[in-house]
Amino acid sequence: MEWYVWLILCAVLIVGEIFTASFFAGPLGLGCLVASLISKAGGEVAIQFLGFSVTSVVLLLALRPALMRMRENKVDGGETGIDIYIGKQGRITEKVDAQAGTGRIQIGGENWAAVSDVGIIIEEESQATVIRIEGTKAIVSVSENP
């Protein structure tokens, strides 16, 4: 019957982790799950607490620091998605000309449609800097120092 108590405690801690995202209650909940399995298998109370303790400590030491770093990177305004291209230099692969409706820029491994920020023509093979992204187009400016 002890395994029910461990299982209920596991559920409470896991649900608590979902609402707090502290990365503390989750490892404890998984420790409770291990203790519940040990209890169901007929393990003594001392073995259950040992299983709970070892599992919780190992998971806390192994997972919590990495998960906290991931959370801090997202909260601290880390650039994600298309924002990573802003300020990057790239090579013009097709002449940027608003009149003709042409223009492409190679940024790293990506090839984007390009538009000049001031409406000038930028020749192929020139270096340009991404000012902003609007939809699927990179708004670019001629790079002074390639």
What number of structural domains do the residues give? 2
Extract low-pLDDT stretches. Answer: none
Mean pLDDT figure: 87
β-strand percent reads: 15-25%
Q: Give the structural class.
A: alpha+beta
Q: What best-fitting shape do the alpha-carbon axes yield? A: rod-shaped
Q: Please count the helical segments.
A: 3
Distance separating the two termini: 72 Å
Q: Helix and strand succession?
A: HHHEEEEE
Rg (C-alpha, Å): 27 Å
The largest sheet, given as strand count, sense and whether it forms a barrel, is: 5 strands, mixed, barrel
**Number of strand elements:** 5
- Portion in helices: 40-55%
The strand order across the widest sheet is 1-2-3-5-4
How would you explain this protein's 3D organization?
The protein is of the alpha+beta class and 146 residues long. It has 2 domains: 2-75, no CATH class; 82-142, Nucleic acid-binding proteins (OB fold (Dihydrolipoamide Acetyltransferase, E2P), Beta Barrel), CATH 2.40.50.140. 45% of the residues lie in helices and 25% in strands. It has 3 helices and 5 strands; from the N terminus they run αααβββββ. Strands 1-2-3-5-4 form a 5-stranded mixed beta barrel. α1 (2-20) runs antiparallel to α2 and α2 (25-40) runs antiparallel to α3 (45-75). It starts with a helix and ends with a strand.
